[in-house]
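Thought: the user asked what DUF2793 domain-containing protein looks like in 3D. I have the sequence; next I should run the structure tool and report back without guessing.
Action: structure_tool
Action Input:
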Amino acid sequence: MPDHSPRLALPFIQPSQAQKHVTHNEALSTLDTVVQLAVEAVEASTPPAAPNEGEVWAIGLAPEGAWAGQAGRIATLIDDTWRFIAPQDGWIALDKSTGRLLRQAGGAWAPLAPPELVNLAGVGINAGFDAVNRLAVAAPATLLNHEGAGHQLKINKAAEGDTASLLFQTGFGGRAEMGTAGSDDFAIKVSADGGTWFTGLSLDAASGLVSGTAVQQTADDATAGRLLRVGAFGWGQDGAQAVPVLADLDTPGTASGVYAVTTATTGASGAGTCLILRGAAGEPAQILLDADGQRLAFRTRAGGVWGAWAALSGAHNITRDSGPDGSYVRYPDGTQICQHSLTLDAPDQVDGALFRAALPNGWSYPAAFAPGTRPTLTASATTQDGLWISAIAGDHLSGTLRAHAATPIATAPEITVTAIGRWM
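Observation:
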């Protein structure tokens, strides 16, 4: 007759055995431990400081203290003494700390997966499933909760050209979709009828940059509801992006932004960069900076009429310079003043004449005046008495001076000349 049972290793009472109650009680203690097995914790490694009789622990792979050397066994305290039992494959235990059912397999405890819940053809919760929708749920809401930390909902596809997305429907007709459909770019699409779709936003998988119908299509796209792009209406552009060029500044409906204007632009007072700001409807304001940076002007529109361009004045807007032909100053209102001191050609000496021959000398202005204009030219002698000066303004580039003397003079006269006109 064997000493122990083949499955639970329960001790048998032998014939003519003394103290049979000891063997019987040992078998009952084993049964009390493993029947309806429930453990305080799984993979435990350190004995509790104050264990209670009847509590059971599933020991892990690296036990310490009184559990040393008992890896993989279950431990229970009986009569203040730890007793260890080796679990067999197929045993079922309840983990009291988590409420999960565990199964012993290959020397380890693993969550129990009932065969009837593995490789199901489908699941319908308050609904029926089909070959495509193998999980169907009909409920006011569906909760996917964390298990102590974060939580991910994973949608995996086989290849880049396949679809991994969330589809939103009305009456089982598609109305919105988000995900990677047909590529690895992430897109958000919408439809009013389930037939015609618009890709509102698409994020390029390689760069993360955005495109789509919800984004401006061109730098001057003023469609309501679209997102501004870098360079829209001239904002935020760099050297690689062109500022929109306007053909007509007088159009009151031009969108706010930064624009380039040329000498051919209607309403412009010169080539440069124009900032358009909009306040009330039909009443924009324009600020123009000339291409050479020499003038800053503005105008506004009120009552359907554009006001005149007004230049901003002040020392910071005044240009001064000088050279061999004299000096000049330009004001933002368009005024230019040129000055120069020069010596005229020496005269021939002819005694007895009341007037001497004219002393011709031309003057090239140090800065050109506006083409088609002629400045006011004045001059006065600075080294000779009895001289008067005639000045001919000429054109916007130069003028002519003549000095007349009542009596003969031996030295060429020095004069100061001033030209006043407009530079724009």
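Thought: the tool returned a structure. Summarizing for the user.
Final Answer: Structure for DUF2793 domain-containing protein predicted. The mean pLDDT is 83. Residues 270 and 409 are 49 Å apart (CA to CA).
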